[in-house]
Amino acid sequence: MARMIKVPAWKFTIPRLPNYDPNEPDVFEEMTLQEHLVELTSRIKKMVYGIVAGFILGAILVRPILGQIVDAANLEGSGLDVRGPSDPITIFFRVALYVAIGITLPNIIYQLVAFLAPGLTRKEKRVLFTSLPFMSILFIGGVSYAYFFAIPRALDFLSNFLSDFIDWNIDAQETISFYLALMMGLGLSFQLPVIMFVLAKIGIVSPANMRKWRKYAYLAIMVLAAIITPTSDPINLAFVAIPLLILYEAGIIISLMFAKTSLRTVTADTVDGSDAAEPAKPALTEKTPKRTPQSETPDDV
Q: Of 23, 42, 194, 214, which residue is the least packed, with the fewest Cβ within 10 Å?
């Protein structure tokens, strides 16, 4: 009779960050200057390797990307204009390099954080490494919002504005810079909820102060949207400002839900608890000898 082969059961588990004891002291890795330079060189090499691999993929995607840019800018018949004979190859390398940096940006951020991690406490590492996946997702969301929604609608509005009097022939270099400014600006600006959560968790700004300073934050967001937007028209400004205002409110809600207690509060409570654990020792008092009254002698009288 044949023996049955038992197949080992495989169970998928989500990796989690290790727990830490708040009472255990932090141990920092001491490294010499040469070891720091070796570590920095290793991290830079990993960044470069990722960018080179992303550049190969970006070179494949140059033509489809330029085709989408031409369609979004309503230039199906003519195409983008160039000013110099070397502009086509320059545009090719620019687009491929930007795609490579955008694809490998999570790896670049991770290498930078890994280089700085030995100088952080375990609590700070836990907050930082927990935020990294959300930072990548929000950056991709901001870039995608700019590329697929904000920029095509902005170009459509600008191409039809005063079209009876203006010949719409835009320069290729300026159009790519327009795309880059909005995509990178929105990709970085979409990190606002993560930044607000980290600030609340560390204890620098509380969610109550975020709500209290809402009007000043709205003003700062409008200024930031004006800086990100390459043009001065209100349509593009609204496409950038409205998502940032929504993200600011989302950051307040996330801070209220997940950053109720900051790291500073936990540390202070730990220190107070350790101090309270030690009973107070009674103060030592010096005993003074009790003096007895002396009887008067005839000589004193």
A: 23
What's the chain's average pLDDT?
Answer: 78
Per-domain residue ranges of the chain: 34-159+168-269
Residue 11: predicted pLDDT: 53
d(CA 299, CA 200): 85
Long-range CB pairs of 81-90 (<8 Å, 24+ gap) are: 81/169, 81/170, 81/171, 81/172, 82/171, 82/172, 82/173, 83/171, 83/173, 87/172, 87/173, 90/173
Residue 295: predicted pLDDT:
46
> Residue 81 has what DSSP assignment?
B
Q: How far apart are CA 217 and CA 245, in angstroms?
A: 9
- What is the rounded distance in angstroms from the CA atom of residue 277 to the CA atom of residue 14? 38
**Number of DSSP helices (H) and strands (E) in the chain, helices first:** 10, 0
Average pLDDT over residues 7-15: 48
The letter for the amino acid at 251 is G
Give the 3-state secondary structure of 184-210.
HHHHHHCCHHHHHHHHHHHCCCCHHHH
